[in-house]
Design goal:
The structure is a single chain. By secondary structure, the protein is an alpha/beta fold. It has two domains: about 80 residues, Orthogonal Bundle (Arc Repressor Mutant, subunit A); about 200 residues, 3-Layer(aba) Sandwich (D-Maltodextrin-Binding Protein, domain 2). The chain is built from ten helices and eleven strands. The strands form two sheets. Strands 3, 4, 5, 6, 7, 8, 9, 10 and 11 form a nine-stranded mixed β-sheet that branches. The radius of gyration is 21 Å and the shape is globular. The C terminus is likely disordered.
Amino acid sequence: MDIRGLRYFTEVVRRQSFTRAAEALYVTQPTISKMVRQLEDELGMPLLIREGKSFRLTDAGRVTYERGQDVLMAMQRLNNELSDLTALERGELVVGVPPMIGATFFAPVVSAFHARYPRVELKLMEDGATAVENAVRSGQLEIGVAVLPVDEEVFDHFGFVSDRLCLVAPAGSRWKGLASIKLTDIADEPLILYPEDFTLSHRVADAYRRDGLKMKVAERSGHWDFIVALVAARLGVALLPERITRRIDRSLFDFVPLNDAELVWNLGLIWRRDTYLSHATRAWIDITREMLAPDDDEHAHTGD
């Protein structure tokens, strides 16, 4: 069995899209379709039932997807252990990072990693925190950044930031000068929010429901700079982590902390408890601890 075909098939199922799978794997959509057809031919049965632009799994497809993840995880472990034989003289490390936090936190970590291990190819895979968590859970990634808390029976983690959310509104807004706000204070305002599959998006929506409020979303983006541009265009207001707001021109916007203990941006580096970690991954964890260790030790859970 061609392992690439199995990898392409599982990615198509995981992302529920040939197009998104092709983008994630850096290949063309016809290549994905061809490899899936070849896998079906090799197995002698259809795996997907195409229905226009969508598809559903056959019984054989469900079994192949479930067992295929085990095969891919085993292959990843084999590659990791063989790579370790070179003691970080060469190899590859892929880290899942939500797009909103990459430059904000990890530029110094990337720089330090390259300086110490110049022969290890480092790739940052940008995706929402939920997708990163799922990829680490399934073994497609060894390590990534997620919004805490996560399932501690599955993951070990190292927390490196705990940040409250802040209202971002055009300068001169009716909230200017307030010490804090609650969700009820912005209940009638359209929101510029993160994509629906982002963990923080789910938590904001849950908080609105908790308070009996109806959330009105004007636009969505996974990039904080575009969110801010949409606020500047007066399409709505945004709720961004305080650390992100420090990167924004304070003369153009009003920033007011959100007084909600349940809506806190807790970020952590996560990895599976029950799996082998390559030397490159362990080195990344060590450097992240050095560069991003919080001042308050109670925010960190190392799971060693």
